[in-house]
Amino acid sequence: MFVKEAMTHDFKALSLESTLREAVRIFQNDKIGLLPVVDANNSLLGAFSRYSLYRALLNDCSLDTLIEPYIIHDAVSIYENEELKDASLLLTEHNTAHAIVISEDNRVSGIFGHADINRSYHIEYSAVVNSLNSLLQQMHTGALAVDHTGKIVVMNPAAESMCGRTSESTVGLALSELFPDLQDSLRSIELQAVEPLIRHVTIKDRKLLITCNSLSNEDHYWGGLFLLQDFTDYETIAGEFDINKKLELALEKTIEMSSDAFVLVDKEGHIRRVNQATCELMKMSKDKIMHTSVHESLPEIRLEETLSAGIQRESFEAVMIGKHHCMVTRVPIFQGNEVVGAIGRIVYRNLNKWKNVMNRLDNLEKEVSYYRAELSILGGSEFDIDDILSKSEEMRQLKYLARQAAPGFSTVLLLGESGTGKELFARGVHNASRRPGRFVKINCAAVPIELWESEFFGYADGAFTGAKRGGKTGKFEDANNGTIFLDEIGDMPLSMQVKLLRVLQEREFERVGGNQTIHVNVRIIAATNKDLEQMVASGDFREDLYYRLHVIPLHIPPLRKRAEDIPLLATSVSKKFSHLMGIEPITISPVAISLLMAHHWPGNVRELENVIERAMNCMNGRVLESHHLPDYLVNINSRPNSETKKALSTFTNNSGIPENEQTTSVYYKKKVSEAEKEAIESALQLANGNRTAAAKILGISRSQFYKKMNMFNIL
User: Fold this and answer.
1) Which of the listed residues 529, 557, 585 is the one where a domain comes to its end?
2) SS3 for 467?
């Protein structure tokens, strides 16, 4: 409702030439406490109130004195198109009983006061009450209303019939006296639950379904409404009807959408339902098939045999229908102990395609199973720091330090190159901390600078144009009582570093556009691949923030400094992609492992994953060989570093490779060439010189096989 609809339209205005006598006469006749003062164009100049009159009389002014010296120039005014609620708040804020109403062209159009508000609300309330009373009396649904104390204040005739008592004997009773089972519902709606509660109760052998709704105005609870429906006579019928409808709908959808043919017959053997696939198999329309004898229309499936008393279960066999090889399933339909029909399923389309679909479904199930396991590891409580794969002594000490730091509150700073597994350490520390809250990750390098503050701290209702109604929580609120992982912290703008520092120090912040201070209990884990000390020296990173973050630093070594981990990681990655590709686990040859261990790995574990994935897409057999690896790994032109030599020595000693030949890349290229040549010659011997068969034995393409033969001068 708007001010224009509630204001006093019939009013009198004063001018600068008006006297106190005119004002007194209007006050006496119109019983109003505020008069607008306008110019010749009816534009507002000010206001003259009863208090203005009293002030003039106290100054011993005569009634013929002009009102101009006593005009209120800062009188409260309001536009006529404002809502009644906002206008009421305005009067309260200014502690005044009246306000002058201004039209859109800034002319005085009325007077608005508390009396207008009361009158409007009373009219609206009376209309609503009359409508509600009429509705309650006429509706077939029972209705009970209770006040904030839980006492019944309204009971309509339908509720009287359902409860078996009159309104006169019920109104004034506590709801718990009539429905003891609804006591918990009453407590719930007092909490102003958004969703209505539904309860089943029994009263005097009547089964009622009761919907409980909270009646409140903003934050004030003033009662509840209970709607009653009698399901005594319909419950059994509705249950049976619902089951039958569901069965019928399920059957109809199953047979109509299936690519297999379905035939449903009654106990007499007459066809009652077929799907489109059946029509395609029989090359007939549904109209010509329906209601015919299944023995005459489709004698091959022998569905009439299923109707005999001796067939009690599903039967399955292969038959020929026309030129189609078919698999037929026959199932009897029982009602009690009596067979009332049968259904036949005919799989006649390309059975090889059907088999391929089943294989694909099996692979998809494996993929889903794998991703479920991955989600459990990365996001669930099952993931542990010890699940980080490594044989390195440095990594062992690092995991020990991470586990020691996990239960505390101190900030952890993860330092290391891209792809070394900083996020795995962050999740491991969170899960080992047993903090009840969530693990919330935010990539500081991926957030647009204009969204930084709202992303971290959220925003209040109406904070900016396009803001979500009710506001939005930020990452720090989401991570309360948990852990927030600030990845790529080195890319955080300096303006946000100041705000982050306050959260680290005070554990509190305000939303964008809000004024309420929010306190949080959050564990900070930060990560970066940048040199923060150098950034501090160059002024790109705040020194005070750096020392706040640098409480428990964990330096994760790159893969090139822990080459002994490469065989373990490569095997794990191959298992991962075997799941994804739906293939059996593969084996990585010693030569391929040696090449992997000799590489520098600037991309660390992430690069290793990419290499294994690429190689597995290039292979046809069960063994990942050196020729499946990218050329830049096979053609190594630099010496391995000392760490790689040491790890490679351990691996090659276990693989039978001479220790004195492990120092130069020439050895690796030589061994690869020798192994490939020997493999090709052996395959040719096994295939009796048939090059196509030899290529299949090796699991490579024929063109690749010829290329290798030319390379090694094999005739």
Assistant:
1) 557
2) coil
CB count in 10 Å sphere of residue 50: 15
> How far apart are alpha carbons 159 and 141 in whole angstroms?
7
Phi-psi region of 516 (alpha: psi -120 to 50; beta: other; left: phi over 0): beta
**Residue 132 in domain:** no
| CATH number of residue 338's parent domain | 3.30.450.20
**Type of residue found at 499:** K
Q: Is residue 567 part of a domain?
A: yes
Residues with Cβ within 8 Å of 564's Cβ and at least 6 positions away in sequence, in order, are 391, 392, 646, 647, 650, 651
Return the bridge partners of 695, or none.
Answer: none
Give the residue numbers spanning the domain of 407.
380-557
d(CA 85, CA 82): 8
Do 320 and 412 fall into the same domain?
no
Asked if residue 369 is part of any domain, the answer here is no
Over residues 302-311, the pLDDT tens digits come to 888 888 755 5
Most confident of 125-134, 401-410, 625-634: 401-410
Domain boundary among 342, 372, 388: 342
The CATH number that applies at residue 397 is 3.40.50.300
Domain count, the chain: 5
SS (H, E, C) 396-445: HHHHHHHHHHCCCCCCEEEECCCCCCHHHHHHHHHHHHCCCCCEEEEECC
Give tens-digit pLDDT for 514-567.
888 899 999 999 999 999 999 999 999 999 999 999 999 999 999 999 888 899
Same domain, 567 and 534: no
DSSP string for residues in 617-665: HH--SSEE-GGGS-HHHHS--SPPPHHHHHHHHHHHHHHT--GGG-SSH
Rg of the Cα trace of the chain? 42
Is 408 in the same domain as 546?
A: yes
Are the C-beta atoms of 224 and 214 separated by less than 8 Å? Answer: yes
pLDDT digits (tens, 9 = 90+) for 423-451: 999 999 998 888 889 999 999 888 887 78
Same domain, 529 and 491: yes
